[in-house]
Amino acid sequence: MSFSNEVRAEIRSSITDKNSRFACLYGMLLFCRHLSREEIVFQSKSSTAADTFSYLFDRVFHSSAERRDSENRGKKLYICEINDFELISRVFEKYRLDENDRYFDQELIPTSGLGMFTAGAFLASGSVNDPAKEYHLEFTATAEKLAEQLVSLLGDIGVTARTAVRRGQYIVYIKGSESIEDTLTFIGAQQCTLELMNVKIYKDVRNKANRIANCDSANIDKVVAAAMKQQEDILLIARTQGLESLSDELREVAELRLDNSGMSLQEIGDSLSEPISRSGVNHRFKKLAKIADEIRKASITDEK
Which residue, of 6, 41, 62, 117, is most buried by count of CB atoms within 10 Å of its CB? Predict the structure, then answer.
C-alpha cells in the first residue's frame, strides 16, 4: 500500500460522527472533478476514496451515488456519479454550493470540523509522497479561489503552503517534513504522522552516522532503533498525559530528544541545563520508557 493510501485509510477510520461526516463530504464535493446542477462526478484512482464518498453520501443524504469502475491508460478509476436533478438540488442547497464559483463557506463548518473538511479535500484530490524518498504533499483544486482558501486554512495551523498551476489545475503543495506532519495530524492521520517521524529519525541518524568514519552498520541500526523508540515513547506520553506531567529533569530530556533526533546520549547530557553523564541520560530514558509502557498496558486493559 502506498503512503497516500495509508493516509486515506486512516482518515476513513477517523470519520466517527455526524459532524465529521458532513464536513468531510463537503471537502470531497468541493474538490471533486465535476460539480454542476446537471451532474456530480467524484473520480479517484483510490478505491478507498471512492468507497468513502459513497459511504458519506449515503449517510448525509440517505441516497446512493451510482458507482462504476473504469480504466484510463491502463490504470483503474473508481467513479461515483449523481445524476438525479432533485437529489443534486438537495446537495447544492445543503452545502450552499455555486456551480460557477467554487469556494469554501466557513459558516457551514465549526472550527472543530476544519480538519475533517481538509481531510475530505485530501481524499478527493490529495497525495503525499513516500517520506523515505521525498517530503511533498499536495492538493488539486479546480478554482483559484478555492486553492487560496485552502492555503489560508493551512496557514491558520502554522503550515506554509504554496500554489502552482499545472495543466489548468491549481496545485496547493507543502514541502518540509514538519509542515507535512502538522497537516497529516490536522486531517486525522496521526499514525501516518508517527510513521513519517520515524522515517525522518532514521534519515537523520543515518546521515549523521555516515559522516562518522569506521562506524559499522550494526551500530548505526542500534542507534537508530534506540532513538526511534525513545521518540515514540515520548510522543505517546505527550499525546496521552502531556509532557507537563513529567518531572523537570525528564521533561528536559524528552524535549531535547524530540527536537534533536540525531543527538547521542552524551550530546544530550552535555546540553542539559545541569549536564550529566551518558549513563545518567540513559537512566532517564529508561524512566520515560517505563511510563510509556504503563500507558500501553492501561490502554490494553481499557479495551478489554
Answer: 117
Domain boundaries, the chain: 3-186, 212-303
The mean per-residue pLDDT over the stretch 50-59 comes to: 95
Question: How far is the first Cα of the chain from the last one, in angstroms, to the nearest whole number?
Answer: 30
Residues with Cβ within 8 Å of residue 75, at least 6 apart in sequence? 45
What's the grid cell of residue 56? 458519506
What lies within 8 Å, CB to CB, of 206 at 6+ separation is 220, 224
Q: What is the dihedral of CA 58, 62, 64, 65, to 10 degrees?
A: -70
Q: Which cell is 217 given?
A: 552498520
In b/e form, how buried is each residue of 116-125, taking b as 16+ CB within 10 angstroms?
bbbbbbbbbb
Radius of gyration of the chain (CA): 23
Q: Give all strands of the β-sheet with 40-44 in edge-to-edge order.
A: 34-35, 40-44, 75-82, 66-72
The Cα 108–Cα 149 span in angstroms is 14
Q: What is the pTM of this model?
A: 0.69
CATH fold, domain 3-186, is Endonuclease I-creI (3.10.28)
Residue 221 has pLDDT above 80, yes or no: no
pLDDT greater than 80 at residue 219: no
Looking at residue 64, the DSSP 8-state letter turns out to be P
**Rounded to an integer, what distance in angstroms lies between the CA atom of residue 52 and that of residue 28?**
10
- The sign of the CA dihedral 221, 236, 20, 99 is negative
Does 224 score more than 80 pLDDT? no
